[in-house]
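Quick one: structure tokens for this chain, please?
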Amino acid sequence: MTQTFVTRLTGFIKELFYRFFHDEIIGLSAQLAYFFLLSLFPFLIFLITLIGYLPISVDDLLGLVSRFAPGETMTLIESNLRQIMEEPRGDLLSFGVIATIWSASNGINAIFRAMNRAYDVTETRHFLISRLVAIFLTIAMIVVIIIALLLPVFGKAIGIFIFSHLGISNSFIAIWDFFRIMISFFVMVVVLAILYYFAPNKRLQFREVWYGAFFATIGWQLVSLAFSYFVLNFGNYTATYGSLGGIIVLMIWFYLTAMVIILGGEINAVIRFLKTIHN
């Protein structure tokens, strides 16, 4: 049994390694990173304007981004946000929504192309259907990010309210904080699973997409933290690129993020392919 597991694991790694180059994941990741960059600041404009209607502050937003964004990237994002906030405009919310959904849906369409390549299928869906699905998934991801923003605020207040009225010790609040983090984690897993389910032009079963969703969620957090640590302690992009250092770091971060997302879909495709062979 152990030998069979090792054999299948070896076959899985070989197939994934082959597809990494055959499906041009490096180039597709660069393409997706470009769309991420285009949608970032419209999305931040949307969030900054939305903050006025939610019980969260700009510092809460920046705190969420700083958990994963590399140092020089955080400086770039914060400086642009401060500049935007100095000149408030009433139509920023509408502009932010439209610009975010359109530019981010282009990124989702790029993921569609990557997933079609992973499953060796061609796109036959009508342009409008494909765009509507991309917009739906974009809105779902926006909701996830807003939930990630609200959970630290509402979750802590709810926990304190419940435990204070029930007379439970403060140690249970720490447990509650852990569950709040897990809720954010699983919400992200579910959204990625939905993305992997709808992206390829192929009928899949929902249970087939969880492997890649878990990989992408965990992998993105680990890669982001590792890259942030590298930039903080070893990388000095400002010395090489000057004032463009922050943008270069941001693009590399988006590039790594895109690669993890595409690899998650490739993992699902490889597992499906190997199961078909063995069955």
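The CA atoms of residues 156 and 227 lie 29 Å apart.
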